[in-house]
Amino acid sequence: MASRPPGLYRVARLLRRLGLVALIVLISYIAIAGYSATQIHVHSIGKSITAQTQGRAVTITAGVEIDNHGWVPIQQVSIVTFVWFPNGGGLIAQTASPVVNIDAGSTVTVPVTLTVPLNLSSAAHDGGVSLLTHSLNLPADTWANATFAGLATLHLSDGASVPWGAPFYELNVTVGAPSVAANGTTTVSATVFYINQAPFTESGTLHFSLNSAAGTACASSQLGLDVPQNATFDQTASVTIPASCDLSGGSVTATYSGGGLTVAFPPEPIP
Amino acid sequence: MSAPGPPPKIPSLARRLIVATLMLIPLLIFWVGLPTAALSELGSHGVDSSLGIQTVSIAGVVLSFLAASRYAVRPTRGYGPVAFLAGVVTSAYLLAIVPFANLSLTIGGSVDLTLNYGPALLLLAIVPVFGAAAGLVTTIEDGLRPGERLPFDYPP
Prior knowledge:
With 271 residues, chain A is mainly β. Chain A has one helix and 19 strands. In chain B, strands 1-2-3 form a three-stranded antiparallel β-sheet, covered by helices on one side.
């Protein structure tokens, strides 16, 4: 027997050993990744929701907190969400989180920011449901992607509905019967009723205008608001209107200003 | 010119076939038993796999026989080609199932989770390439100098 194996034999042997080493390394890595996957904790998206009003929109910020206590990184984490009106009433808002990498042993919050224009109404075929005055279950489509340890990719799709609390739920401005004073001025009462079901306190002013059937503004007034979440607002204001103005068949228009938010409501008819 | 050394101690064909048959047991467990058990267990928990148990079983049996047959034919010139073939087929199998490497789970009727483990299979597909390359080298060696490796594979 020769003391030293021939060259080709040694090459073949080296290749076989390299294959064995590669197999052991890969299986060890997969085992470590498998263990690490059990050390990941995802906290609820509802843990830290904040709502901020600005202009005609409310910006809802949520965070999905991911604790990666494992030994391998989670890469390319991203979340995309679309929120719709029910019954095909159209798109309300969409958002895409930044793409986040989560190193081993770290905790990262993936921010999801959704800007909802409050003056939106659903498509005409659905009766023009307004987000300002209707609390709804909104269909939402969410997709999340992540790459784990370079070994696997995870895709999540969620088609659950999300509850929407209207800031002026069931808003109703009721105009009372006109009363004529001795001096000839006409006064009507306007009662404003609604429930704040939005996740923020409304602190501001509700300006409203009483218009004739021809659209002429007969009179206007305003009410100060300070309505916490889930509280009911029910106040009556007296408005003096010129004798020449007939409100019959007219409309009430209203605008809310406060907390950085300015929104106009759809006109309400006066019977 | 050096004197020829003692002849290699090559096991008989019957002995090699017995050992190869015994080798089939762990090979079948690895290539057939574990994957089908995993797929069945996942299926019992509502996790659907794009990869069928039948596919895994048939391919696993083929790969196990190829791997075991390497031992049986090792003293012959067929060893290199069989090792090459086993490596190529194993690698090709792993690459072929990459598009089907999906596990899906529906939670609560609205949440769909899909895990794609194709990247792991792509990495694992590298391993048999070393075996195929070794088989190719052995084929060349056996072609150039038949029997040269036998004293090292089967020391006297």
